[in-house]
């Protein structure tokens, strides 16, 4: 029995063949989210610079003086930046920036094919003309905000080192723009992120935050730096280089104690990225002692902060038992009643996912979940959570039945988990069905140990579970079919033998079973 | 320190001293000064009058008179102690609005972000500026000192008239909200009726030197009693903006409007004084009726008028325009202190010639403002810079030297923004504040810059540019002079203009 238990345990956490089962799902979700967010960004357009002329104006018709508000064409910009006059170059760069900042269809590709990027990158270095540095930085930022190809074009123009040296510019608005641009480049993905790190962006970025009191830093500037740093922690395959992470951690820890909501949110996201990986990555984060702060932020009451801090906590409990214990020791479970009943389904789902990894831990850890009174919440989610949340709750239950003591499993059954759990066997997703069947098997095993199998089987039959399991024997998925068949054979088909031992007496209102009550101290 | 009991903490302190009276260059301060002068005269208090145009002047004057100065009274609008209500109200404004462009749904932040030119309106208010960093005007200084005179039972009709002018200055120069104006008008009206009852016999019997103040529900037509009705309509901000007189359509509409009133053009174009009595009789009602038809729903406004003797009749706003014009006269021979004295004189009823010369100057100024507004709008000189609108008057623009003066430029700024709001169809631009720059001194190569809050009926007239200017200057090490008492008015080296503006855009974006 203990060997089968161990085998099952291997299915969860990152011990066995199914390493990162939960995390694999996480990645899918991530991609989804990021894409949705990008679309969202595309839609979040704002109207820009335009002051329509008064058509009835008598002077207007005569005047050719409208050049002040007419946007430049790309070829005018090319001509302007190539002039020998710095004033003209400034104006042209500014005109480019304005075009790139407009709401609809910024002409990013036209700018790239006009060969403007190297010119702008050159302007970044004109330390004696700060305003052209600023304008070109802004223009390049917006080009880099586009598709991967567009970002790559900025990078191949040599922008990364140029921007890095501007981070420490004495002009804060230039520094801020450079930081923003680097954020966009690093945000493109692992490749460019690592390139930015390789060029040595981390130290200057951290240096601008090296002040005794973060509140001295202008808020928007601080937000931009935080966001850019968080982008340096972001993305996997590969994850960011460990030395860079170690370098950034102390600053991120400081930022996590700042009071600005947006700074907090982006910092929490950074922690969620850093903890999204193998145990050694989780370990460097946990050993900074950040866990209690993250736990505290779970209860911050702002969705923008709850989401990433819960994500980070959830990632940490995918780690070792010790790492999980750090979360429990910080009092995280006390936050869960609220999270499991959060009005956002997504939070419920993430909380259930986190819980499922805690119930995949040691039985003492499971006991903490029980003591925190969270089982009724889980049962409730099985009943009325949305589909994704239900799936996570199923995992939490299955993991509990797999690693919990018999007493703990009994407690679970007493908390009426069976009916909602078995109802979910109607799910279309065979993976979920398998996980439920696993749970049923575990519960039966526990019942077996205390000789309560028959009583349990009766309970399963009474809530319609047996019918559902039986119908799974004709399931198209072979694994499901086999698992269902196995359960039936093991616990529900011993008719012949059982006729002898517990022959049902026909009574007026059904069958009465005589249940042997030998060593049982627990009752379902 | 804040003075809470002006009588005990101020007047009784200065009463036995020699006083240095430092007076800022605006009409309200001048009126307050007139009231104090009368009080000092009455109580035989010695004083030295020192006009100051800015902080530098103030400190020079302070050093010069240090020996005799016991108490320094900075006598401009800021002296008005804001009521505690105001302060608390400001704090509440701070809260609320969720900041930022970030979505609130808790989804993962975007990997890349484009920087837009534009800022979501209402957002930048809270970016850098807490309530202390806004500048706004409290109760008129002249009204404060009138209240003092009243408490001392030394108030006179002249003082009351100056208090009214002080209040009207705040309205004319758009320093206070309409609500505040109406409330203060009501206060003044009570004083007016008290005074007309008090001396009914002596003063109300007409005589050459009598003075009668009356509450009026008058037209928002600037200086019309001293102009022709036509010119007044053309050069008043209210009518000019509503008709959009800088357009052909607007001119046509104005003709229709005059026809609708049934006023012959000949009458309308001649001096108001010479118009037929029959027309003048119920002119205000006639104008109001037609105005309503043309969408000028609130052409009338509560104000006060005064009669000096038999023939001289002035509205409070006439006085404000005249005194302001004198104070900022660009007459070559006049120094600042000459202008100051002339402006002060125009407030005395013993010097009506001065007042009339002020009115003439004011007409020129209003004409210049209207022409500049028209040309700025028609040639699209007002540019949207993202967080604010910007307009630069180039050297060589007609009358540009007139606008090197803070009050004139501010007034131009206000008129221009109103006109712009009426002319643009861009809804976003309607909500933006305006920054104007004009050459200050060609020799020194400086420009004067004024920033005003967005134009809206519900505007609280609070101005945050003071702080923003400081920050922008600081971050670009632009050579600026923040000398004016109004921190939203500064001087700047011409060459630093573009970097200063860029910093400002960044700061407010």
From TrEMBL, chain A:
It holds the Pfam family Arm_3. It comes from the Eukaryota. GO terms for molecular function: nuclear import signal receptor activity. GO terms for cellular component: cytoplasm; nucleus. InterPro entries: ARM-like, ARM-type_fold, Arm_3, Armadillo, Importin-a_IBB, Importin-a_IBB_sf, Importin_alpha. Residues 46-71 are annotated as: Disordered. PANTHER family: IMPORTIN ALPHA. This is Importin subunit alpha. It comes from Sphaeramia orbicularis (orbiculate cardinalfish). The gene is kpna2.
Automatic annotation (TrEMBL), chain B:
Its main location: nucleus. This is CDC45 cell division cycle 45 homolog (S. cerevisiae). The gene is cdc45. InterPro entries: CDC45 (IPR003874). GO terms for cellular component: DNA replication preinitiation complex. Signal peptide: none annotated. Keywords: Cell cycle, DNA replication, Nucleus. Pfam families: CDC45. It is found in: Nucleus. Belongs to the CDC45 family. It comes from Sphaeramia orbicularis (orbiculate cardinalfish). Residues 90-107 have a biased composition (Acidic residues). GO terms for molecular function: chromatin binding; DNA replication origin binding; single-stranded DNA binding. Residues 90-113 are annotated as: Disordered. One of its GO terms (biological process) is DNA replication initiation.
